[in-house]
Design a protein that fits this description.
Length: 82
């Protein structure tokens, strides 16, 4: 799981820059949504790409965004028939 380690210093605002090699390896570009998981017990912070899911059923397929929520075509059709 861990193939390499890079040491970076946290700046005065609490920021670090992800190494370009890490971003390329993960195929993360500008605006990629990233989750930050904190494991204080093991002194770890884990970054994971956030995957949007349908607000209603949890599907990850063909989502459309509306007012900061995501919806799949099946749920969109179901709601339209209400
Ligand atoms: Zn859905």
């Amino acid at each position: 799981m861990r193939n390499s380690a890079t040491v970076r210093l946290i700046d005065e605002l609490g920021r670090i820059v992800l190494p370009v090699e890490a971003r390329q390896a993960m195929n993360w570009g500008e605006k990629t949504p990233v989750e930050i998981w904190i494991n204080a017990t093991d002194h770890e912070i884990i970054l994971r790409q956030h995957r949007f899911v349908c607000t209603y059923c949890g599907s990850m397929d063909n989502l459309k965004a509306y007012q900061n929520k995501h919806i799949c075509p099946d749920c969109q059709r179901a709601i339209a028939t209400l």
